[in-house]
Amino acid sequence: MRSSTEKAKETAKRELKAEPLESVIDKMITENYDRSKQSVERERFFEIPDKMVMFYKYSYGQQSRFFSELQKNKALYGSKCKGCGMVYFPPRSRCSECYSDTEWVRVKDEGTVVSSTTSWYATSEFFDKVPYAVGYVKPLDADTAMLQRIDLKSSEFVEPGTPVIARFKEKRIGVVSDFWYEVKE
Ligand SMILES: [Zn+2]
Fold first, then answer.
1. N or C, which terminus of the chain has less Cβ within 10 Å?
2. Residue 124 pLDDT
3. What is the mean pLDDT of residues 153-164?
């Protein structure tokens, strides 16, 4: 006499043979679709707005030292090519001129404006700064420039070549807005 388990196995085998797997899946999708449609038609679901808060960390990878020096020491760091001596700000791990590795170097807080535009709009963090300039600033001892906010004092624009100096937030969290430039007067 066959056990009930064996019987069940045989039934399953027969059913699988009779019906290819693809059509079983098709049927499941159709059934689920019909079921969800029916339930939606049967009753309207009550929804309320809610929020989801997520805490997470992300890594600055090879750019880490730029942000850690900024946060901990109010220091601006660029990188210097070991081959040709080019100083990059913001830092690069490899030189785009000669492809050599670079090393970290501190750059001066003083710099000059390469180009800039004035912004009359801002996100909430910068409402009280409007109008302010956003421009490329090249530290005095670097060869490239970085895009950063430039506070305006007496004028609504900053010309290329204007000397600026870096200022740092008292409470720094390791983001690029921990510092900005202002026109040196
Ligand atoms: Zn180089």
1. N
2. 81
3. 89
- 159 and 106 both lie in a single domain: yes
19 versus 86: the higher-pLDDT residue is 86
Ligand 1 centroid – CA 106 distance (Å)? 17
What is the whole-number distance in angstroms between the Cα of residue 99 and the centre of ligand 1?
A: 6
Domain of 150, in residue numbers? 62-183
Query: How many domains does the structure of the chain reveal?
Result: 2
Q: Is residue 178 part of a domain?
A: yes
Find the 85 Cα to ligand 1 centroid distance in Å: 6
Interval between CA 164 and ligand 1 midpoint (Å): 27
pTM: 0.70
